[in-house]
Amino acid sequence: MNLDKALQVLEALASGCSPKTGEIVADESILNERDVIRALQVAIELLKKETFISKSNIDIQSEEIEYVTNVFREKSISLTINNLVGFFLGTKKFKDSTIIKNSFYKKYSDVYTQGQLIDFFSEYLGENGLGKNKDEAYREIDFFQKERFNRLTENAINQLKEKINEIGVLKTENLSEYVQNSRKNYARAYESWSEKEKELLSKALKYTNDLDLLSECFQRGKGSIESLGQKLIYESLNDKVIN
């Protein structure tokens, strides 16, 4: 098990969920004891320190990036943060044999994490006028474009729906006709995302990227869920603050 996987397991346990199914553990579980929760949080903090590498320590030469930029241009591949990160980490998104055999392909797969490179290339492209500004870098997260998966059990899905229903809907008066029509399909459409709801989405994303399922659970449009989901994942990948 690598450190990223270990962090995922510990974070799920610390939030009171099963790492495998996403189900909420019973109130009387040992995982809900204060000392256990704190111990898990300490372990998470230590692992994050272990895996943390400052952006300033990322050593990718501009000549390498320029070379890859030319390769992308020749292959009609868009110069985006996501493509640069995928190239240097060696993700499966590239199918062209000449790309895969390139000497720079996958060069940093065992050196840097996805989050570190997203942050690095976001700044690099921004400084060179080649890409989105840093505030829009989260849009490069391709979590929802990857092969669909779902590890939430039926029980976990029902628990999630119950939690969402408990939050309720606050924005119910003076709604525009457009919002009223939207709520015929999605009961929570254009409702502000509460911190509790964001927390529930963040937890759910550890188990599924199925927008149809998430839309059903959160009673919101898929676009709203995808946008916030990208932001939450981006913030998680680039979280450099150790509490």
Structural features, described:
51% of the residues lie in helices and 0% in strands. The chain is built from eleven helices and no strands. It has helices at residues 3-14, 34-51, 62-74, 81-89, 97-100, 114-127, 154-167, 177-182, 195-204, 211-218, 222-237. The chain is globular and about 55 Å long.
Strand proportion: under 5%
Multimer state: single chain
N-C termini distance:
25 Å
**Fraction in helix:** 40-55%
Number of domains: 3
What string gives the helices and strands in order?
Answer: HHHHHHHHHHH
Give a short account of the largest sheet.
none
**What Rg do the Cα atoms give?**
20 Å
Structural class: mainly alpha
SSE arrangement:
Layout lengths: L2 H12 L19 H18 L10 H13 L6 H9 L7 H4 L13 H14 L26 H14 L9 H6 L12 H10 L6 H8 L3 H16 L6
Helix pairs in contact: 1-2, 4-6, 7-9
